[in-house]
């Protein structure tokens, strides 16, 4: 399969272009920005970059004089896990390799795609493939396969940006990261002296019945990712709405508020009513900041979900879910190390929680558990900003729905991730 796909990827790579615009017009950038507003993806100062810019905020290469930009990243690791004294031994993993390719069709018409190969070639996904029409810094149209901007991680998920081997639990088990759909929407930015404000809004295909009819035997929104038909048609004809607003104060930090919601069930077929309309809604708050002086980087995301589960389902299917994570990263050494001139040694820690079922039992009024706690201390070494070698120790508590003593899992992980 991979032998067939690589020639296709290389053929596409030779016909597309990325972040640095081709000189298709003779009007200067300054004049164009004065007429139409600043380009929201190109030449953005570092302290103005936001999660909105994550798709373009990557190292792209432009081979020779060809009108193309291409890039990607790869990550691999080894781990040893032990659950209540039982272990399956040491294993090696290559969870993903991602290729991005981009084209500037015109100075303000851009195309970008992201293709991910997971677990070797066990899964091959188009995570992003959209055309951006940039009318003004405040008004831009995006259409194609878009990354739903719920929280921060769903958009800003590239492995080399993180000090941790595993992706955050709540961002993959409540929010179905990385979650993308076919649709369209608007996005934009407003610049002031010390602030940057941004918004995004999209209509896309959405969820389906698999979020409650799945092998997990619980309400599990990521099950919808398994359905490839969401890139072909809507499951019920009702679009999923995703809205996000964010603000960033230069040299301080960014905060974002987002919501994603819609109908998930097949409520009618050829005019025949099958069920009432049942909604799924998610809310998320994300933030990041760097503490002055210490350069301590703090990043977090918290999410809440509400699902209209039919009364015929048992109480093990949660109507409400919640979770979140908090990362703290502290640089301890910077400068020349082991022959690299701009190396950084970090220590970091992540605290995270997932509650699949928020509520109480009808019969006893006792708490419904079905939750996970996890703490992850980490050490990472960055020989360059685009490459990270990381060592993690994860200690995790999994509590079942009845609140029995949790299963305790200790995991050692060593791995790397790099852009190329």
UniProtKB/TrEMBL annotation:
The lineage of its organism: Bacteria, Pseudomonadati, Bacteroidota, Cytophagia, Cytophagales. InterPro entries: Porin_dom_sf (IPR023614). Residues 1-18 form the signal peptide. It comes from Persicitalea jodogahamensis. Keywords: Signal. It comes from the Bacteria. Gene3D superfamilies: Porin. SUPFAM superfamilies: Porins (SSF56935). This is Porin.
């Amino acid at each position: 399969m991979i032998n067939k796909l690589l020639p296709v990827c290389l053929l596409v790579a030779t016909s597309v272009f990325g972040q640095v615009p081709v000189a298709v017009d003779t009007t200067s950038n300054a004049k164009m920005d004065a007429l139409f507003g600043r380009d929201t993806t190109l030449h953005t100062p570092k302290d103005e970059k936001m999660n909105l810019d994550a798709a373009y905020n990557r190292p792209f290469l432009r081979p020779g004089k060809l009108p193309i930009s291409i890039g990607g990243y790869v990550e691999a690791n080894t781990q040893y896990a032990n659950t209540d004294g039982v272990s399956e031994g040491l294993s090696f993993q290559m969870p993903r390799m991602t290729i991005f390719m981009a084209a500037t069709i015109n100075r303000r018409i851009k195309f970008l795609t992201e293709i991910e190969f997971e677990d070797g070639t066990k899964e091959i996904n188009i995570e992003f493939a959209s055309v951006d029409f940039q009318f003004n810094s405040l008004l831009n149209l995006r259409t194609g396969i878009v990354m739903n901007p719920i929280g921060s991680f769903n958009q800003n998920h590239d492995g080399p940006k993180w000090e941790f081997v595993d992706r955050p639990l709540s961002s993959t088990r409540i929010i179905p990261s990385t979650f993308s759909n076919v649709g369209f929407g608007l996005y934009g930015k407003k610049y002031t002296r010390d602030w940057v404000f941004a918004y995004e809004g999209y209509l896309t295909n959405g969820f389906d019945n698999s979020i409650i009819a799945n092998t997990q035997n619980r309400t599990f929104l990521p099950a919808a990712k398994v359905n490839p038909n969401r890139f072909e048609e809507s499951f019920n004809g009702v679009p999923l709405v995703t809205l996000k607003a964010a603000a960033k104060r230069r040299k301080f930090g960014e905060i974002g508020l987002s919501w994603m919601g819609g109908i998930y069930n097949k409520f009618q077929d050829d005019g025949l009513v099958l069920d009432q309309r049942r909604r799924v809604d998610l809310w998320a708050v994300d933030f990041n900041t760097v503490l002055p002086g210490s350069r301590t980087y703090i990043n977090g995301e918290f999410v809440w979900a509400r699902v209209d589960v039919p009364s015929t389902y048992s109480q093990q299917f949660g109507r409400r879910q919640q979770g979140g994570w908090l990362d703290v990263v502290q640089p301890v050494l910077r400068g020349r190390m082991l022959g690299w001139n701009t190396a950084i040694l970090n220590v970091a820690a992540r605290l995270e929680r997932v509650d699949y079922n928020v509520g109480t039992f009808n019969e006893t009024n006792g708490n419904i558990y079905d939750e996970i706690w996890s703490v992850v201390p980490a050490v990472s070494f960055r020989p360059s900003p685009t490459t990270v070698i990381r060592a993690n120790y994860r200690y995790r508590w999994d509590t079942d729905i009845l609140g029995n003593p949790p299963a305790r899992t200790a995991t050692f992980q060593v791995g790397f991730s790099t852009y190329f």
